[in-house]
Amino acid sequence: MRSLLIFTLVGIGAQLVDGALGMAFGVTATTLLVLSSVGAAQASAAVHLAEVGTTFASGLAHWRFKNIDWKLVAKLGAPGAIGAFVGASLLSSLSTEHAAPLMAAILVGIGIYVLLRFSLRTPLTFGAKGTSHSAKFLAPLGLFGGFIDASGGGGWGPVTTSTLLSQGKTAPRTVIGSVSASEFLVSVSASLGFLIGLREEFLDNWPVVVGLMVGGVIAAPFAAWLVSRVSPALLGSAVGGVIVLTNSQKLVHFFDIHWPWSTAIYSAIVIAWVSLVIYAWRVSRAPKPTTDSAGRDEDDLEPENAESEVISR
Question: How far is it, in rounded angstroms, from Cα 14 to Cα 8?
Fold first, then answer.
């Protein structure tokens, strides 16, 4: 009963992060399971089975808050499901640990780009609800993200959310809501792959599955509400920092960097991240200049022109 409660709390915390940032549920939960001496395949299987419930609740919550573009979900989720099934089938018989450092390096680069883009320059060209991403771009992204997610125990959010945010074509809340909704298809497909590959071992960790699922379902509505209230600049900065910090830890462990250098690296990342988030927060709270019907700033009008504008109205 105690372990069930612990995993429920873990599920709540992981879902708050995942629903608000579009990533990190699988990474958080899988890391905890591996640290508890659960095999990589068994841990990934348990997490993905739990995510069938949490992603459904998250998608429903994001739909209620109007954070979803269903065309984006279809173009991204269907290939993601195929990649997840293949990844789960392969992980059932082999390990992909050697690919982790390369993926971590790629994601650190993407995270730095997202962090700087949203904190230092708020994007001005977001689509209100739709997306200009083509199927030729989304299909390979979904296929790759689904494969990494299932074979690595997490990664759908970091791969897809960070890449879509870096394009600057869709509002962050729409990206996060759509990625969260499409993850339901990925989780179902991965679970089927693990069911075929692991058979009897698939449901051995049912307390973990139930705890993560219950916690995730409880937190899903709050996470969806949170993403609809945070400014794009602040949200994008937070996402970028999560990507950089999470994947830099993998690189530090891979290169066997110890204290005090590891502490110095983490401290530098956190200080830079917090500074950029604070800057983005201040920018998001700054008063925006009002514009006239022609889209010009009122402050840019000459006094006599401004007076004529008022008269003409």
Answer: 10
Global confidence as pTM: 0.64
Predicted pLDDT at 171: 79
Cβ neighbours of residue 263 under 8 Å, at least 6 residues apart?
none
- Locate the domains of the chain by residue range: 2-312
Q: Environment class of residue 276 by beta-carbon count within 10 Å: exposed (0-12), middle (13-18) or buried (19+)?
A: buried
Q: Could you please report the per-residue DSSP string of 58-79?
A: HHHHHHHTT---HHHHHHHHHH
Tens-place pLDDT, residues 231-271? 767 777 877 787 788 778 878 988 889 989 999 999 999 99
CA distance 292 to 287: 16
- For the chain, list residues with pLDDT below 50: 96, 123-129, 291-313
Strand-pair partners of 170: 127
Q: Would you state the structure tokens that stand for residue 142, as one six-digit string?
A: 């979904």
Q: What pLDDT is stored for residue 20 in this prediction? A: 61
- The DSSP output letter for 93 is T
* Contact call for residues 124 and 283 (beta carbons, < 8 A): no
- How high is the pLDDT of residue 79? 94
* Positive or negative torsion for Cα 201, 41, 246, 233: negative
CA–CA gap between residue 153 and residue 94 (Å, rounded): 13
What are the helix (H) ranges across 65-203?
Answer: 70-91, 100-120, 135-152, 156-167, 172-198
- What is the C-alpha separation between 54 and 29, in angstroms, rounded? 12
| Predicted pLDDT of residue 261 | 94
Closest CA to 81 of 146, 145, 133, 175: 146
- Is the Cβ–Cβ distance between 236 and 113 less than 8 Å? no
